Amino acid sequence: MIGLASFFSAEPDRQGLGEPEWMPSLEVVARARANLERRGIVRCLSRRVGGPQWVAPGETPWLWWGAAALWIVLWPGLIAWKAGGELAWLPWWLPAILAMVHMLGLAAPVWISERAATREDLRRRFGRIRTIAEMLALEPSEFESWTGMLFQLLGYRVENTQDVADHGIDLVVRNAQTRYGLVQCKRYRGTVGEPVVRDLFGTLVHENADRSWLVTTGGISRQAHQWSTGKPIELWDGQRLVDFARRLR
């Protein structure tokens, strides 16, 4: 099991107020981590948001099987029929080209993105994390994946920024109302202060984004909430995440 010292960032709260009173103990978080690993939930969250995969977990690829069966039966028969002179009017190359196009099309129902996975599967994966202790038990990349699932369930398209110069941004989200949204994930035990929110707003302006979100397992100070009022910034603390987990699972 991963040591507790590796769970949390050493970055200070930046004028926050310490740990909220509802924050679970380190021992509770350690037990939650062991339970998540034992149940295989950590592996489920390790897949990157939006990453390609085969058919969604638990689904049978009936469409692919049907298309493959059609290819096996239809095109060899058609080509043989053409070779036998029954379709003299048909160009010799057309069946071969159509067969190749059909074969390439077989990949379509198999290679699907995470965004195309069924909503039920996404809800099931997201709903396996329900408490603040379980959120804190996740490593940063796992918490980002879980947060990405949350935004997907809320109707956003999600991109992970871990391979680019992200300016502290972990996710990019978009929907019909948001052309370019920025999400900063902070898996903290403490309370995030106003300076962190100011930094996020500066990134929003620099990136010419429409909206931004600060998502944290910890608390958010009153000063941070006051400063963000009237700005295109949403602040989600640990208790808000628990509420989402209950409603969307």
Kindly describe this structure.
A hairpin with a 6-residue loop joins strand 4 (171-174) and strand 5. The longest helix is centred in the first third of the chain and has 22 residues, at 62-83. Strands 3-4-5-7-9 form a five-stranded mixed β-sheet, sandwiched between helices. The protein has ten helices and nine strands. 45% of the residues lie in helices and 13% in strands. The chain has helices at 26-38, 41-45, 62-83, 93-105, 119-126, 132-137, 140-153, 194-207, 222-228, 238-248, and strands at 52-53, 112-113, 157-160, 171-174, 181-186, 191-192, 211-216, 219-220, 233-236. The protein is an alpha/beta fold and 249 residues long. The chain has two domains: 4-56 and 113-248, 3-Layer(aba) Sandwich (Trna Endonuclease, Chain: A, domain 1); 62-109.
How much of the sequence lies in strands comes to: 5-15%
Q: Order of strands side by side in the largest beta sheet?
A: 3-4-5-7-9
Order of helices and strands: HHEHHEHHHEEEEHEEHEH
Query: What average pLDDT do the residues reach?
Result: 79
Q: How many β-strand runs?
A: 9
Describe, in short, the structure shown:
With 249 residues, the protein is of the alpha/beta class.
Which helices and strands, and how do they pair?
Elements (H helix, E strand, L loop, with lengths): L25 H13 L2 H5 L6 E2 L8 H22 L9 H13 L6 E2 L5 H8 L5 H6 L2 H14 L3 E4 L10 E4 L6 E6 L4 E2 L1 H14 L3 E6 L2 E2 L1 H7 L4 E4 L1 H11 L1
Parallel strand pairs: 5-7, 6-8, 7-9
Antiparallel strand pairs: 1-2, 3-4, 4-5
